[in-house]
Each structure stands twice: as structure tokens, then as C-alpha cells.
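Sample pair:
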Amino acid sequence: MERQIKLIWDFRGYDALKTAEHQEIHLKQFIQMEGLPITITGFEQINEMHAIAFIVVNDDLMRKLRDILKPHRGELYSDIA
């Protein structure tokens, strides 16, 4: 299986969760417009003042999408809980 990368956008402040949720909407729109094979997106609250939005991409798409979408950071993704 190809390595997967979680591209992450960090949001901080009182509206962080709402902003992360809205960012996911834009990420889904981009995925649909570009016809990309991406099925894992999301947002989550880290704490009261920090939330993230993310997409999970295969390694071969990571550089291209990193340069276009400019995430704040990335990490290896594993769906094993």
C-alpha cells in the first residue's frame, strides 16, 4: 500500500472550530473540481482554542497539492486506531 500523508491546516482562537469546518468545505470543493481520488477529509477540535482541517493524500500527490493548497504542516497517516 502506498504511503499516505495527512495535510493539515491549523486554526486558533475562539472561532477555530467553525473556521476548520468551513475549510473542509473548501477542500471538498477543490477535490471535486479537480476530480482527485481523495476520500478522507475532516476537521477536529484539538482544544477550545485550536482546531484543524485535513485531507489525506497518497504520497505521489503530496508535493503537487502541498504547493497548490499550502497546508500548515503534514504527517504520516495511519487509519489504525
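Residues 11 and 51 are 5 Å apart (CA to CA).
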